[in-house]
Design a protein that fits this description.
about 0% strand
């Protein structure tokens, strides 16, 4: 995966001329491989990077560059692929994500991909923020005012989960209600649609198919369109692998068809 990322960075410079070169000079980016180095080892990989990933995937209109950055960063953090993070975090900032939003993405993923994966992303994010002179005033506070809670919907969710698992794992039920849905999901530093996009991307990227139905429905309730949901799968095929994308495809298809 590191080879793909650095290859993309190289081709960005080669293929786009001065304007693209300027965009590709991402502060905090990891060193890039030269295209000659990649070609000497894997000429087909060089071709796919240039023709498919750069030439098509990131240019497709189904997701905005900002959304593609959300999906990519979520996948890399969820899969603990931190070598690529400096470049893609810088690109995310260039694509319109605010430092506070990326901070919230990492925090959110601690719950949906594991504490250690989120912690592993901290050094890369710290270096990118330092390279861009981003201060603490541009990061979200540890606590503060929250978004309004849909009491009726949350009560239904909590009741259902409590009935299913309360006798088996009361701690999981309690933390799910108190920490996730009555705290984390109400933090205003990341819009509900973006938070859902992060969650769905992480679930697909890590093969957590059983959880996709609930969270994709929630994402679409929060504004993600069915076309965007389909593009997420196509994008993640490159960043999480074809098997993960195709394992999620029947679930995504079922959710979309049932919502028509």
């Amino acid at each position: 995966m590191r080879t793909l990322a650095t290859t993309l960075f190289s081709f960005w410079l080669i293929a786009g001329g001065p304007a693209v070169a300027e965009q590709a000079t991402v502060k905090g980016a990891s060193p890039m491989l030269k295209s000659d180095d990649v070609r000497a080892v894997a000429p087909a990989l060089e071709k796919y990077a240039h023709d498919v990933v750069l030439g098509d995937l990131w240019k497709r209109p189904g997701l905005s560059p900002r959304d593609r950055s959300i999906v990519t960063v979520a996948a890399l953090v969820a899969r603990d692929q931190t070598v690529e993070l400096p470049y893609y975090l810088g690109l995310a900032l260039d694509n319109g994500l605010k430092p506070a939003e990326i901070s919230e993405i990492i925090t959110h993923l601690a719950f949906y991909s594991g504490w250690a994966n989120a912690m592993d992303a901290i050094p890369a994010m710290r270096d990118v923020l330092e390279s861009r002179n981003v201060g603490a005033d541009q990061l979200p506070p540890a606590s503060g005012p929250q978004l309004p809670l849909d009491e009726a919907t949350e009560k239904q969710r909590a009741t259902r989960v409590g009935e299913q698992f309360g006798q088996i794992t009361p701690s999981l039920v309690q933390y799910t209600t108190d920490v996730l849905f009555r705290d984390l999901w109400l933090r205003p530093g990341l819009a509900p649609r973006d938070r859902s996009l992060v969650t769905v991307s992480a679930l697909v990227a890590t093969g957590q198919v059983a959880q996709i139905t609930y969270h994709l429905n929630r994402a679409m309730d929060n504004g993600l369109t069915r076309e965007e949901a389909g593009e997420v799968l196509g994008h993640l095929a490159f960043y999480a692998g074809w098997p993960n994308a195709f394992s999620a495809a029947p679930v995504v298809k079922d959710v979309i068809e049932k919502r028509r």
